[in-house]
């Protein structure tokens, strides 16, 4: 193994990827398998999750599995982590990536809609992170967690109205820092990434006028690709980041820089 491969190797590690059936989760899961990790896909979409796990196994030869899970159900989260531990023969890392977005004015969003976004994006990530940390501590293992926040946790997006999403992602950044400080004594690192506008299933079908405006506001003048997030996630989960915790890496084509 070359020095470069050693720096970013996940060989011998097993990673849980939430929201891994499609989009960013699927792309990053595939790249992590390519650098040595076994992959456990956690996703509400059971059939898609299974297809993704099988595809990653076929293309990389790594061990994979798929689990149908609602991350907003804390009891289910605990049960599935236990099951994945047994079937994968141990877990080491978590890419905490499940999330939803609602484009709706704060004047019109209902309490139920607000609660759903917060429940998935914030509570779901918290339940996964906290139960995974308990798992690691209970096994006497060190490990790492990478949460998915967003540039929307740093700025207010425009022209779409999405206060619920922005609030949830800002909270993820602060939660990441808080958990990092609490868990460091047990050898558990917690970091997050804040993607900008990425071309995925969540963005490609929205209002074309919004998309044009987003590109005008992004100095790079284009969408990011999910592949452009892989390096940040792999770094944060790898042993190369052994002194990096409580950090948020913004990957946004300079959007938040201007």
TrEMBL record:
<dbReference type="GO" id="GO:0016616">
    <property type="term" value="F:oxidoreductase activity, acting on the CH-OH group of donors, NAD or NADP as acceptor"/>
</dbReference>
<dbReference type="GO" id="GO:0005975">
    <property type="term" value="P:carbohydrate metabolic process"/>
</dbReference>
<dbReference type="GO" id="GO:0044281">
    <property type="term" value="P:small molecule metabolic process"/>
</dbReference>
<protein>
    <submittedName>
        <fullName>NAD(P)-dependent dehydrogenase (Short-subunit alcohol dehydrogenase family)</fullName>
    </submittedName>
</protein>
<dbReference type="Pfam" id="PF13561">
    <property type="entry name" value="adh_short_C2"/>
</dbReference>
<dbReference type="InterPro" id="IPR036291">
    <property type="entry name" value="NAD(P)-bd_dom_sf"/>
</dbReference>
<comment type="similarity">
    <text>Belongs to the short-chain dehydrogenases/reductases (SDR) family.</text>
</comment>
<dbReference type="InterPro" id="IPR020904">
    <property type="entry name" value="Sc_DH/Rdtase_CS"/>
</dbReference>
<dbReference type="InterPro" id="IPR002347">
    <property type="entry name" value="SDR_fam"/>
</dbReference>
<keyword id="KW-0521">NADP</keyword>
<keyword id="KW-0560">Oxidoreductase</keyword>
